[in-house]
Structure formats: C-alpha cells, structure tokens
Amino acid sequence: MNNRHTPSRIARQRGTVLLVALIMLLVMTLLGLNSMRGTTLEERMAGNWRDQIIALQAAEAALREAETAIAPGIALPTLWGFPCPEGQTCAVFAFDDSDPITRNYLLSDDEDDVAQWMDSATTYGGAIDGTADLPQYLVEHRGYVRDHLGTGFGSTQETGRDMFQVTARGIGQTDEAIRLLQSIYAKRYN
Q1: pLDDT value at residue 105
Q2: Which one of 22, 76, 139, 188 is separated from 89 by 20 to 30 angstroms, measured CA to CA?
Q3: Nearest to 171 by CA among 60, 69, 68, 47
Q4: Residues sharing a CB contact under 8 Å with residue 91, sequence separation 6 or more, in sequence order
Q5: What does the alpha-carbon distance between residue 178 and residue 57 come to, in Å, rounded to a whole number?
Q6: pTM, two decimal places
C-alpha cells in the first residue's frame, strides 16, 4: 500500500510554500526599507555636520583676518560709535557698555540690531569655496587695561594694552548653517 500521495494530503499542502515565500519576502522588504531609512538619516546628519564645519571655518577665517588687521597698527585706531555714521567706513567700533554682559547686536532679538550689525560689519577679503556667502566680522574697542595697579608719585610711564572684541559670523553651504565666534585681542600701543 502506497499512501504517500493521497489526494487529500496534496490538497492540504497547496499554497503553503507560496505563503511562506510571501512572508519571507515581506520581512526582507521591511528590513530593506528600514535600512534605507537609516542610511538616509545618516546621510542627512553627515551633510548637516559638513555644513556646520564649513560655517565654523568661514567664521574662523574672518576672525583671524580681523586680528591680523589689528596687529600691525602703531596707533590706536579711530573709534566710531555703533552703528557707523552714514557715508563713513568703520573699522573699529566703541563697545556698547550699557550692558556689556548681555548686549550683543548680532545675538539680539531685535531684527533692527541684527540688520545694523550686518550692514556695519566688514566682509572677509578672501575667497572661501563652498559657502553661501562670505563671512563678516566686527571689531569693538573694549577699553584699556593698565599693566600695573600701583599709584602714587613717580615718573614711570603709563603702560598697558587696549582690548578689542572681535565678533565673526560665518555661513556654511546653506543659509541655515551659521556660526558665531568671538575673541578678545590685546594690543599694546604705548
């Protein structure tokens, strides 16, 4: 008696392989879609990181250009108040010390302050590939710091350093990537 291939047994097995294959295909499709989604997210993150790095390098270049412009001077630059008087080119502004801790035109919530900063800032003189716009910087005179605290009689000449605050703004490949850098630069004129 050969009962391996009875008609009822064959009828029950029809479509089982197809069902298993479809389930396996569905699982592999879901794994592939999840992998593609993860890859797309990582690619976006890498692009944003690159954009931020380009903005940082642009701001760094502007910061160094401003510091290099201050370095060779032999006399204190003429100070102009912020904002710059109309029709005049300003290189160094007087620091707004009404609230020196929180006052920064570029970080202000007031759009007019930001616009004044952008209009008065010096644009970077070189070329930077890959940026949406050239970086800008603004130099502000923060004051004079004496070398000593001594007072009294004597013929010693007053010595000290003038302090400058340099604020640089760099833009990446898109306008959405913006980096701000600030430095304090000390220069002796006496």
Answers
A1: 67
A2: 188
A3: 60
A4: 69, 77, 80, 122, 139
A5: 11
A6: 0.69
Residue 2, domain member (yes or no): no
Q: Which residue has the tokens 């800032």?
A: 121
Domain with 91 in it: 7-187
Instruction: Look at residue 53 and tell me if it is in a domain.
Output: yes
pLDDT above 70: residue 5: no
- For the chain, the domain total comes to 1
Is 83 contained in some domain?
yes
1 belongs to a structural domain: no
User: pLDDT (tens digit, 9 = 90+) per residue, 61-91?
Assistant: 999 998 888 888 777 777 666 556 566 566 6
Cα separation of the two ends of the chain: 118
Amino acid of residue 36: M
Nearest to 161 by CA among 59, 71, 30, 42: 71
What does the alpha-carbon distance between residue 72 and residue 54 come to, in Å, rounded to a whole number?
28
In sequence order, the 6+-apart residues with CB closer than 8 A to the CB of 142 are 95, 163, 164, 165, 184
